[in-house]
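Its record is set out here:
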Amino acid sequence: MDYQNILTTCTYCGCGCNFFLEVLDGKLVGTIPCKTSPVNEGKLCIKGWNVHQFVQSENRLTHPMIRKNGVLEKVSWDEAFDYTASRLSEIKAEKGSDAIGFLTSAKVTNEENYLLQKFARAGVGTNNIDHCARL
């Protein structure tokens, strides 16, 4: 039996609460609040307590997919990145950078949200970026 506690940041909102994921034989089995975290001080909301459950959902995508001839097909990460980069370049060349927009999520860290807005503005050249918490 292999048991581990892995410190991580909650993905449900931008607060940045810390907790430990309980892993038993490679499977997530629970969540324990981090008592030394200055953000949540050992407390968790109901979403934080149950965050480990969505990771193992049968409905969760576990690999990239691209629609080919109307059907979603499993592809490699390299193919997915190449396809995405080429489509963004095509759209930008054809319709301009403001034809592209990005929607970020409260289910990632503030740092990840910052990176996407930086990519949108500096990489793509658009200010069309929003956050689901505003919707």
Observations:
- The mean pLDDT is 91.
- The chain has three domains: 3-55, 61-95, 97-130.
- The helical segments are 46-49, 52-55, 77-95, 110-124.
- The longest helix spans residues 77-95.
